[in-house]
Amino acid sequence: MATPLGGLMAVVVGFLVQRKTFRGNRVMEFVSMLNYALPGTVVGIAYVIAFNERPILLTGTMTILVAAYMFRYQAAGIRSVVASLHQIDRSMEEASASLGAGAARTFFRVTLPLIVPALLMGMRYLFIHCMTAISATIFLVSVRWSLLTTRILECMTELQFAQACAFSVVLILLVFVATALMVGLTRLATRRLSGEGGPT
């Protein structure tokens, strides 16, 4: 859940930071990178404190895990989208607008297809780190939601090495399968853009 939501947020924030000029533009970019710069334990404790009071009581729920992963690891996606937008000449979007397309149509028909490879690479990074995160997770996980990384840690502390190895193999296979899928989608998107004469 954190991977597609983080990808969506990376596109929105990256586009606003790179293509729009407004008061607080740089502040928005700095804040979006802040979660990644802080240690995982600090982020985990901060989320527990922030979301442990009414009316926003999220401690122990899946929502707080998804939010923590999404905000903590979306920085790579944002930077890849920003870098991709740097390589796209604004004249392409201006040409679309001059032909009568609105801002939304220009974004979905011109800009978004060109940044799909960068978006998929950011989502790949986000997924891998979500699956292997432990520092912030140990403060946010609950009895209702048992994650692979915390189960591996529990097995290691209880000297259950066989179970820890089994969980680790499952984790590695999941990451490899998802990574192969995203790499395949990235290559497909790149080939499609190359075939249409767009930038790669």
What would your notes on this structure say?
The protein is mainly alpha-helical. It has one domain (2-195): MetI-like fold (Orthogonal Bundle), CATH 1.10.3720. 78% of the residues lie in helices and 2% in strands. It has helices at 2-19, 25-37, 40-50, 62-73, 75-87, 90-98, 103-132, 137-140, 148-157, 161-195; strands spanning 52-53, 56-57. A hairpin with a 2-residue loop joins strand 1 and strand 2 (56-57). The chain is globular, with a radius of gyration of 20 Å.
CATH architecture assignment: Orthogonal Bundle
* Strand numbers in spatial order across the main sheet: 1-2
The radius of gyration is 20 Å
* End-to-end C-alpha gap: 28 Å
Could you say how many structural domains there are in total? 1
Helix content: over 70%
User: Structural class of the secondary elements?
Assistant: mainly alpha
CATH topology: MetI-like fold
The total beta strand count reads 2
Q: Determine the number of helices (DSSP H or I, runs of at least 4 residues).
A: 10
Kindly estimate the percentage of residues that lie in beta strands according to DSSP: under 5%
Mean pLDDT: 81
Task: State the CATH superfamily name.
Answer: MetI-like
User: Which regions have little confidence, pLDDT < 50, spanning 5+ residues?
Assistant: none
